[in-house]
Amino acid sequence: MLVDDSMEAAERLALTLASGGMQRMTARVMCALLFAEQETVTAGELAEWLTISPGTVSTAIKSLTSVGLIERVPAPGSRREHFRFRDDAWAILMSSQNEIVKVMQESANEGIDAVGENSIAGRRLVEMRDFYTYVMAELPAIIDRWHARKRNE
């Protein structure tokens, strides 16, 4: 459960994320999980804490799972699904495990196939594909340095 001070801080962070482009309810669910003082949380608990519908929580959970920030975890003895903010979530968000990046690369390739590389749209799509390919090639070294830094702290 979130206490008043942490709930307020979580809501402020969610507003900041929403102003940066994240869906508002997804930001609220993410921040509730980030600030939770328990290892795992059910979708029902999130809906109750945030006074939002279970469907809204479900949509947010799908989004946060697809980018690698949260994960479904086993909860022996419970009939409900439990979720938690992933260990190393930020590195995962920026890694090849991020399904959104894969989808962006695949979409760029599909677009290139549809319009051709030499069209105006094709040149834009080639740049999109090449950018994501470059970033995904460079990120492993950055993430490795991050892990090394964490080990040395």
Explain this structure to me?
- With 153 residues, this protein is mainly alpha-helical.
- The protein has two domains: 4-87, Arc Repressor Mutant, subunit A; 93-152.
- 68% of the residues lie in helices and 7% in strands.
- The protein has seven helices and three strands.
- It has helices at residues 4-19, 24-35, 43-50, 54-66, 89-93, 99-115, 120-152; strands spanning 41-42, 70-73, 82-85.
- Strands 1-3-2 form a three-stranded antiparallel β-sheet.
- A hairpin with an 8-residue loop joins β2 (70-73) and β3 (82-85).
- α1 (4-19) runs antiparallel to α2 (24-35) and α2 (24-35) packs across α4.
What is the topological layout?
Layout (H helix, E strand, L loop, with lengths): L3 H16 L4 H12 L5 E2 H8 L3 H13 L3 E4 L8 E4 L3 H5 L5 H17 L4 H33 L1
Antiparallel strand pairs: 1-3, 2-3
Helix pairs in contact: 1-2, 2-4, 3-4, 6-7
Which key terms come to mind for this protein?
153 residues; 2 domains; single chain; 3 strands; 7 helices; mainly alpha; 68% helix; Arc Repressor Mutant, subunit A
